[in-house]
């Protein structure tokens, strides 16, 4: 009985109508959390004793990095659902999650570079984490390129789902080997300030931002998927009725 | 194209087909048939076989020209450079892995055959490795000499390439299968597969450089062996799934 919602997801129309009511809530909550978190983190959290004010980019960098990885798993799990149950909605999610995840990965890389300049003295360091983030970005770009390359949407869906799954198997291996590579070539002289020792006055705004980013991600992903669903279902009656109702 | 059809002619006499029940050949004989057929095609196209090796040789020649002929610097670059170029040579050759079979319809026959696609893909990848990965491995010591690789580096270079090129062929077969139906799949194939090559490259070149620095290389080679075992297990499954999508889509 608890699985009914899952079967209903098979209907793009049900999904579209159901999420219609969620969208304003997601928008309000994510904007509120992001605004509160930013003001709290940038204005009221104390400055770091070593890094001064430059550490404050953590409030964007860390949540974006979280979502860069979570976004990939969202994409891969949707791909698996699409391959196994042939669920149209999951296939649309794979397509929409790729560019969003790529943007978050890019934000994480750019903020990392901006943060690296005052603290490490260079824009780019071949640090293990940065490098694996870069590889993650490449994985996203590969899925996006494959998605674009096919003429038939159905082939594109399944091919990019397979690639996303292959990438998922590889991500832990890539992270682990990049970690190995870095420790072999240069001793770990550069480290992020350890997260477990962060002061509560800095931690709470960070947690606010992380939750805010997650809600924001859900909002953007749903909005993107909704428009993708409309595009793919544009020849069905319910979409035409919807368009007619909107036009009036 | 004409060569291939003559190779795959059925072994049983045509007249006896209606009298006998259909016999499904064993997995091994299916694997062996595909292996033999692909090997024969590869041997008949010897020129194509030489291309990745020539690419390997030429790019390595560019390195001293582009950077410096100085021995000390080349020595440092050698392990990584040889590995990166081997990786690129494999990538360039991968595009042809399923393409000619896709174009002349042999791939559809393969998909329709009662044989498990896993072993058919494995046979094709094995032939690809024997015709690119193995020659690259054999060539590598010569290029090591050209790049002034220290003497301790030669054995680990050959060992790591032997294990690593197998991984490269297997992982690459997924990309080749995904892009086989695309007209301009070659560059896309490189884009989607290169990030997946990162672990192999790291452990391959670090086996060589740590042996040069006097450390044992067994650990890295063991990891490469583990990658290879893992890839033999999983990559043909993914490639087989991708082939079904590409051919039916």
Explain how this protein is built:
The complex is a heterodimer of chains A (248) and B (249). Chain A has one domain (25-45, 57-189, 198-247). In chain A, 38% of the residues are buried. Chain A has helices at 4-8, 12-20, 22-44, 58-85, 88-120, 128-149, 153-185, 200-232, 237-247. Chain A is 79% helix and 0% strand. Chain A has nine helices and no strands. Chain A starts with a helix and ends with a helix. The two termini of chain B are 24 Å apart. Chain B contains eleven helices and no strands.
Distance between the termini of chain B: 24 Å
- Domains of chain A, number: 1
Q: How is the biggest beta sheet of chain A arranged?
A: none
Order of helices and strands of chain B: HHHHHHHHHHH
| Radius of gyration based on Cα positions of chain A | 20 Å
Class derived from helix and strand content of chain A: mainly alpha
Please report the total strand number of chain A as a whole number: 0
* Tally of individual helices of chain A: 9
Helix content, binned percent of chain B = over 70%
Count of individual beta strands of chain B:
0
What structural class do helix, strand and pairing data of chain B support?
mainly alpha
* Unreliable parts of chain A: 186-195
What would the principal axes of the Cα set say about the shape of chain B? elongated
Shape of chain A: globular
Helices of chain B, by number, come to 11
Task: Provide the gyration radius of chain B in Å.
Answer: 20 Å
How much beta of chain A, percentage-wise? under 5%
Arithmetic mean of pLDDT of chain A: 86
The pair of chains with the biggest contact is: A-B, 31 and 28 residues
């Amino acid at each position: 009985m608890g699985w009914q919602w899952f079967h209903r997801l098979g209907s793009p129309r049900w999904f579209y109508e159901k999420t219609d009511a969620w969208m304003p809530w997601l928008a309000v909550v994510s904007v509120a959390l992001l605004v509160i978190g930013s003001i709290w983190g940038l204005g009221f959290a104390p400055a770091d004793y070593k890094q001064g004010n430059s550490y404050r980019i953590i409030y964007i960098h860390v949540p974006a990095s979280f979502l860069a990885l979570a976004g990939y798993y969202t994409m891969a799990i949707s791909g698996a659902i699409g391959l196994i149950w042939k669920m149209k909605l999951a296939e649309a999610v794979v397509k929409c999650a790729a560019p969003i995840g790529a943007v978050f990965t890019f934000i994480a890389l750019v903020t990392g570079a901006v943060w690296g300049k005052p603290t490490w003295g260079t824009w780019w360091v071949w640090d293990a984490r940065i490098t694996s983030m870069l590889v993650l970005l490449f994985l996203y770009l590969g899925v996006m390129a494959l998605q674009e390359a096919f003429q038939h949407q159905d082939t594109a869906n399944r091919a990019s789902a397979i690639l996303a799954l292959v990438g998922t198997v590889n991500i832990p291996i890539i992270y682990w080997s990049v970690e190995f590579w870095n420790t072999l070539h240069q001793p770990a002289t550069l480290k992020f300030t350890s997260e477990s020792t962060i002061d509560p006055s800095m931690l709470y705004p960070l947690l606010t931002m992380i939750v805010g980013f997650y809600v924001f991600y859900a909002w953007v992903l749903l909005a993107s998927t909704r428009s993708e669903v409309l595009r793919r279902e544009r020849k069905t009656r319910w979409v035409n009725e919807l368009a007619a109702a909107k036009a009036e | 194209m004409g060569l291939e059809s003559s190779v795959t002619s059925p072994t049983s006499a045509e007249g006896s087909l209606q009298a006998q029940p259909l016999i499904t050949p064993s997995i091994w004989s299916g694997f062996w048939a595909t292996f033999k057929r692909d090997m024969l095609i590869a041997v008949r196209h010897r020129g194509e076989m030489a291309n990745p090796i020539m690419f390997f040789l030429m790019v390595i020649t560019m390195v001293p020209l582009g950077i410096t002929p100085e021995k000390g610097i080349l020595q440092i670059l050698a392990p990584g450079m040889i590995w990166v170029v081997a990786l690129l040579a494999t990538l360039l050759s991968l595009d042809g892995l399923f393409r000619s079979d896709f174009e002349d319809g042999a791939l559809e026959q393969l998909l329709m055959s009662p044989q498990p696609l896993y072993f058919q893909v494995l046979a094709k990848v094995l032939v690809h490795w024997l015709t690119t990965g193995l020659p690259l491995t054999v060539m590598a010591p010569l290029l090591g000499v050209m790049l002034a690789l220290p003497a301790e580096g030669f054995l680990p270079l050959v060992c790591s390439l032997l294990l690593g090129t197998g991984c490269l062929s297997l992982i690459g077969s997924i990309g080749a299968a995904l892009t086989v139906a695309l007209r301009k799949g070659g560059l896309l194939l490189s884009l989607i597969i290169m990030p997946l090559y990162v672990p192999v490259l790291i452990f391959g070149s670090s086996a060589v450089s740590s042996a040069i620095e006097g450390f044992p290389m067994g650990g890295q080679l063991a990891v490469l062996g583990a990658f290879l075992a893992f890839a033999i297990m999983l990559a043909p499954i993914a490639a087989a799934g991708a082939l079904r999508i590409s051919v039916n889509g």
